[in-house]
Amino acid sequence: MQIVTHGYNSHFFPCYIELSINRALFLLSHLLILFNVGCNSTSDYETMLSRETAREDTIRTLFFNYELGMPRQAFYDSSRALNLRGLVTNGPNNRYVQYKLPDKFPHKATMLYYPDFGEDQVTQMRIRFSYDAWAPWNRHLWADSLIFEVRKLMEKWYGEGFLIQDVNIPMVGPSHEFVKIEANRQITIQRDSDREVLVKITDLRSLLSREDE
What we know:
The chain is of the alpha+beta class. It folds into 2 domains: 8-54; 58-212, no CATH class. The chain contains 4 helices and 8 strands, in the order H-H-E-E-E-E-H-E-E-E-E-H. The chain has helices at residues 12-53, 72-84, 143-158, 204-212, and strands spanning 89-90, 97-101, 109-118, 121-131, 163-169, 173-182, 185-191, 197-203. An 8-stranded antiparallel β-sheet has the order 1-2-3-4-8-7-6-5, with helices on both faces.
């Protein structure tokens, strides 16, 4: 942008400086608010993490008949049984299990999932949600609005109590995520791309035990 330095109004220039200073103070105050919210969210998360991981009980429930800690073969057998019932199919490139959601969200959507294994047991389930009619020009179907619908669904499945945290996601940039921990089970919800929302359900104790080895 070209800045014209000749012929400026001498009465306008001080006002311009005052407006610039006021705008800078306005932006600074909002940055401080965001910083404080981020700090409080981190503190809340650490409090929740410490409280929940100190519990003696173990929560393994995922969805359908899947569980954290289930053997690899049991996951395959369960998926095959769901497929025979017509509930799930193979996802893209056979990399995921696919489950259709025709009426869970305001628009038809698809859920893709597949676990991470440690010592041939499920340690984490990765779930991807997206609207079927997503397109770059369908702005109302982007993940930044879908994420709130996914949070509502997760609250129906696992109960309320999700915290919100500011995060910086690779290939996405500054964003936010929702987190909930119950005993060993941590659930995170975040925007993974313009199209997809990623949910990770993790067995924290299995991760901690592997880090200690």
